[in-house]
Amino acid sequence: MATFRKLFTRTFTLVWVAGLLQELAWSVMIHFPGFLSELGATETSIGLLYSLSAVAGLALRPVLGRLIDNAGRRPVLLTAGMANAAAVAAMISIDDLSGLLVILFVGHRVFQIAIFTAMLTLGADVLPKEQRTQGLAIYGLGGLVPLATGGAIGDLLLGWGDFDLLFLCAATVSLLSWFMVWLVPPQPNGGSGGPRRGFWAALGQRNLLPVWLLTLLFAAGLEVLFTFIRTYVDERGIGSVGVFFLVYGGVAIVVRLTTSSRLDRLQPLPLIVGSMALFATGIIGLGLADSLNEMILSSVCLGLGHGMMFPIITAQVVTRARDSERGSAMAIFTSLFDLAVLTAAPIVGVVIDTSGYTTAFVGTGVVVALGVVVYSVWERAISVDRERIEVS
Fold first, then answer.
1. What range defines the domain where residue 157 resides?
2. Which residues contact 179 (CB under 8 A, 6 or more apart)?
3. What is the pLDDT, as a whole number, of residue 389?
4. Which long-range contacts (CB under 8 A, 24 or more apart) does 197-202 make?
5. Residue 387 above 50 pLDDT?
6. Which of 199, 254, 232 is nearest to 349 (CA)?
7. Is residue 189 a part of any domain in this protein?
């Protein structure tokens, strides 16, 4: 309990609650592809729309990183938070596949990206260094709880009403998150670690390159699931979005609660390889599943992998990046999730349309598994080079 009291300062608690509310608003939007399907969109067009939002997010990432480092985390959060709530609320007026729908959706995704990046950076800022991985694991619970419940909440909202009710609730919760951020006192933008070199210098930093690869692999798996799980359960006729995320998120929460206090004392490489192996196995299992039990077992594997993976990889970014470039490093980190949408979502959408979910999901899992092998070799090579330099 003393450890948790040390982590949960007033500022961190406000950031944690704000992140929890924002992730809850985000998680119910997992049903958005169903809204697009009702309007007549195909799997390929859904993937392309998500890719368009990813292009916008990627194009703005260098500016976002610079704003977070120079203007501060809080101003970015307050501006993007209000704009995001307005964009989601405006979707209530949409009743066809129009240009306005594209503008609102892309705007929502970009604003959400800015919120997630700045919130994660602020959360890392206020954590003690010696408990950084544990703190990020606890912070991540604010995303896992909505992940576990958001699909089910969305199911309930759509059962009680329609997508207008879902959009209204998401916008309202976003405003509550904005209010919590407003209560957070201003924080320093960065610490020591030398002068700010900028977004591109952080991107090319040698010991961060394998971390970027690992993040991209993880993001690709996540985005495939988040983009197509709604239509997957409709096509297969097993389970539901709510069941999938309840099991997935619930297992991840249990893993996070039971392991977070040990993460700062263990070597990250074996944990990363094991976690990603479980994650890849879950994706492959989902592609092969033809019963509810098989879907649940795959969801358990995904939850185990995700529960361990996210805080470890986030801590690697925070630890290896300069303090003065933390905002830019976090902007790169979150941009890789957009890059995954841009590359994985349309490719997998086409494969689903042409060859089915089994080929698409199994193929994704295999790519993730092979990529982790490359990461492991790369990371070991960097470690060997570092040891040689220290000896010489």
1. 2-183+197-391
2. none
3. 44
4. 197/322, 197/325, 198/62, 198/65, 198/66, 198/325, 198/328, 199/61, 199/62, 199/65, 199/66, 199/328, 199/331, 199/332, 200/62, 201/325, 202/65, 202/321, 202/322, 202/325, 202/328, 202/329, 202/332
5. no
6. 232
7. no
Dist CA 371 CA 392 (whole Å): 32
Pull the structure tokens for residue 59: 């194009």
Residue type, 351: V
CA 35, distance to chain mean position in Å, is 21
d(CA 141, CA 254): 10
Q: Report the domain count for the chain.
A: 1
The tens digit of pLDDT for each residue in 118-153 reads 888 888 887 777 777 778 878 877 777 777 777 778
Reported as a pLDDT band with limits 50, 70 and 90, residue 2 is: very low
Residues 32-91: pLDDT tens digits?
888 888 888 877 788 788 778 878 888 888 888 888 888 888 899 999 999 999 999 999
Give the tens place of pLDDT for each residue, 181-231: 999 887 665 555 555 666 788 888 888 999 999 999 999 998 888 878 878
In a domain, 249, yes or no: yes
CATH number, domain with residue 364? 1.20.1250.20
**306 touches 244 (CB < 8 A):** no
CA distance 118 to 96: 33
3-state secondary structure of 345: helix
Tell me whether residue 100 is in a domain. yes
Q: In terms of pTM, does the model score above 0.85?
A: no
Q: What share of the chain is helix, strand, coil (3-state, %, to 5)?
A: 90, 0, 10
Find, among 12, 274, 305, the residue nearest to 132 by Cα. 12
Judge whether 192 lies within some domain: no
Residues in CB range of 257: below 8 A, 6 or more apart:
141
Task: Identify the burial level of 332 via C-beta atoms within 10 angstroms of its C-beta, where 0-12 means exposed, 13-18 middle and 19 or more buried.
Answer: buried
Tell me 194's DSSP state.
S
